[in-house]
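Most newcomers find our protein records easier to grasp once they have seen one. Read left to right, the backbone structure tokens trace the chain's path through space. Once this layout is familiar, the rest of the handout is easier to follow. The record below serves as our worked example for the rest of this section:


***
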Amino acid sequence: MAREKTPVTPAVRVLRAAGVSFTDHPYTYEEKGGTAVSARELGVDEHAVVKTLIMEDEAKKPLIVLMHGDRQVSTKELARVIGVKSVAPCTPETANRHSGYLVGGTSPFGTRREMPVYMEETILELPRIYLNGGKRGYLVGIEPQDAARLLKPALVRVAI
């Protein structure tokens, strides 16, 4: 029965097509609430809620960064690690254009445009992670190894 309530987003389509087992976690979305709200609403550790950040380098090439909800990205360190001059978050409008999702509902799966993915390597140490399912107020719970298998991210250590 619960399966029928799953929003059919591009992210959900990608997960289903890949045969990835995931759990649905709808919650009441709060504007600018971030991972603290979703973690609180779902009763999970914010460290296991992984945010999907759309950033760009100095040449305006977009990229995805997956980071623990309770950590920030050192853009200076990320730029150094990936060999570019600078990395900065995209404006919400630009992020929406690259990903096809509204900010606050950005999933790393099923993005409109294919982008390189960088994942904080300690995410793989968690037993389960909660990522956006492609809609504000909706996370999916999956094993981090499934996310890594699908996204083929470069693993980085850029958390602060």
